[in-house]
TrEMBL record:
GO terms for cellular component: cytoplasm. The keyword Magnesium does not apply. This is Glucose-6-phosphate 1-epimerase. One of its GO terms (biological process) is carbohydrate metabolic process. It comes from Hericium alpestre. Catalyzes the interconversion between the alpha and beta anomers from at least three hexose 6-phosphate sugars (Glc6P, Gal6P, and Man6P).
Length: 270
């Protein structure tokens, strides 16, 4: 079926993987995806490696792994559908394309729960194989906000690594956050450890609380003018977002055979 119709929209799918979502309201196109390119925005899911591959299991994988570029399964039913929330479940298992580059048997489950002013995303990683394996995982949350005016807190006193440092030694050096309020006025790519369970992201006229559980790190990213070097970023795109990314992004999480790792992000409007 090249199209899927919902109450308010239709999604056209090209046999090679591209898709477009068109609302009936104004026949407005709200999403267009060409094949195999991750979406620059929203909440891409990063698994099993964050950044370039460092673990031998990940040596054939691209930056941020394969989960953001893979087609996930949706079983056409809702887990929850009432005033409290509407929840849908998506799964990803090793497809042939994944198995060709990654040997570990796994199942990812992603549950998206929409409440009136809150969006909850639960990520479960199950080791379905006979041996333990190690991975990283992260929710790469883009928040639409004026990046020169955003402030994020509380991160004071937290250790972090600064990936904007030019030397490998600089990037490996653990720094301590001295600021009451963190901003991204200059190019920022910081991975905080022992992330607080909640941070507030504020800008004039708006704000979002990012709560997380089970994710020990929090990455804050905005490249500012260096965004011009990011091939799929629109001109000036860096002025309109900040990424606040709960994850397991330093070291690796070891998962025993048959075990499941569960972590959650909750976004609330302030
Ligand atoms: O360009 P992407 O692969 O989507 O990565 C975008 C960014 O993701 C994370 O925030 C990393 O910390 C950054 O180093 C990286 O540049």
């Amino acid at each position: 079926m090249p199209f899927k119709e919902a109450r308010d929209r239709v999604i056209l799918t090209h046999p090679k993987g591209a898709s477009v979502t068109i609302l009936f309201f104004g026949a407005t196109i709200i999403s267009w995806k060409s094949p195999d390119r991750p979406v620059r925005g929203g909440i891409p899911i990063v698994f099993p490696n964050f950044g370039p591959a460092e673990h031998p299991d990940h040596k054939d994988l691209p930056q941020h792994g394969f989960s953001r570029n893979a087609p996930w399964e949706f079983d056409d039913s809702l887990l929850m559908d009432n005033e409290a929330g509407v929840a849908a479940r998506f799964t990803l298992e090793p497809l042939d394309k994944i198995r060709a580059v990654y040997k570990r048997p796994f199942q990812l489950v992603y549950i998206v729960t929409l409440a009136e002013h809150q969006l909850t995303t639960d990520l479960h990683v199950k080791n379905t194989g006979p041996d333990p394996f190690e991975f990283q995982a992260l929710l790469h949350t883009y928040i639409r906000a004026p990046s020169k005016e955003v402030s994020i807190s509380p991160l004071k006193g937290k250790s972090y690594i600064d990936k904007t440092e030019v030397s490998a030694e600089g990037r490996a050096t653990v720094k301590e956050e001295k600021r009451d309020v963190v901003d991204v006025k200059k190019p920022t790519d910081s991975v905080y450890e022992n992330a607080p369970p909640s941070v507030q992201v504020k800008w004039p006229g708006g704000g979002v609380e990012v709560r997380s559980a089970g994710f020990p790190t929090l990455t804050i990213w905005n490249p500012q003018e260096q965004g011009a070097e990011v091939p799929d970023m629109e001109e000036g795109g860096w002025e309109r977002f900040v990424c606040v990314e709960p994850g397991y992004a330093r070291g690796f999480k070891k998962l025993d055979a048959g075990s499941t790792y569960a972590a959650q992000q909750v976004l609330s409007v302030l």
